[in-house]
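During the reporting period the student researcher (J.K.) took over the structure-prediction task from the postdoctoral fellow and processed the backlog of single-chain submissions. One of the processed entries is reproduced below for the supervisory committee.
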Amino acid sequence: MAQIQNVLRVELDPNNPVPEACQVIQAIISMYTIAERAAIIEAIQDELGVAVKQLKGVEAHGEPVRRNNRK
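J.K. obtained the following structure tokens:
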């Protein structure tokens, strides 16, 4: 049986991160049906929200690696 794979190879210019990342997202979601695209974009938006909160120090994802055992 034939095996078919969609492969996306990307070269990004780090001097232009936002438009380049947006183009990659557009390319990826264009491979899916219209019905699936909204769910993909919402999931990406959720993950970006987590990343922003982590960068701002608002939310830690998981437990700290080290704990202070002093009493």
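The committee noted the following: The chain has a mean pLDDT of 85.
J.K. will present the remaining backlog at the next meeting.
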